[in-house]
Amino acid sequence: MTAIETVGLTKRFGDLEALADLSLTVPEGELFALLGPNGSGKTTTIEILTGQLEPSAGTASVLGHDPVSDPLAVRRAVGILPEREDPPSFLTPREYLEFVGTVRNLPDVTEQIDEWAERFEFREKLDTLATDLSEGERQRVMLAAAFVHEPDLVFIDEPLVNLDPLMQEQIKGHFREYCERGNTVFLSTHFIEVADELCTQVAIVSDGRLVAECNPQELDDERLLDVFRAEVGATEPATQQVSD
């Protein structure tokens, strides 16, 4: 079954065409990356697929729902972690995740909070105000919020920013395990090494256009970096991963 499908997805902001005729198919169970340089349309794509932004043309389906005509159905069905999103500074991680559980209609989120706090190693900070957490700790809380209701599909924009190398590896392992259970993870990233090492399907976008699709695990002598260079023509194709 298909988790995500777009046909001719286009978005214009005045004279700027942020997306141009983007057509994608993401099967269920895929660990998918939308890879491209900054400003290539990745975040715009996620915002359309999650019902936050209407396309200028084209159609999209997310878990069988239309994000334009029924955005609430999409948001109920998926998990979302936007780039540079933090928990409210005046709440503790526990309070924020309890709020998320209420919004998600979970009858009792206590067990899930303990499980995800343990998994993402912030259990000792559950009752610390978010304003007193490090950037990496806030990122881990937001990751827990995206997964706490065990959605079939999770959208994550730049998932490993602000995480130390050990936590990066742990999060990668969680993504793999989550997809092995039949769920789908849709990552947006400009880090080639993340897409190359982690994902089972990669779509490369440049200037809002789809320029290549591949499975990094099936590439022979050609590396994803080479594909990126050939299609995007960038001399500095990807920012190196920096941890706090």
TrEMBL record:
GO molecular function, one term: ATP binding
Name of the featured protein: ABC transporter ATP-binding protein
Keywords: ATP-binding, Nucleotide-binding, Transport
InterPro entries hit by this protein: AAA+_ATPase (IPR003593), ABC_transporter-like_ATP-bd (IPR003439), ABC_transporter_ATP-binding (IPR050763), P-loop_NTPase (IPR027417)
Organism domain of life: Archaea
Domain ABC transporter: 4-232
Taxonomic classification: Archaea, Methanobacteriati, Methanobacteriota, Stenosarchaea group, Halobacteria
Family listed: Belongs to the ABC transporter superfamily.
Keyword field contains ATP-binding: yes
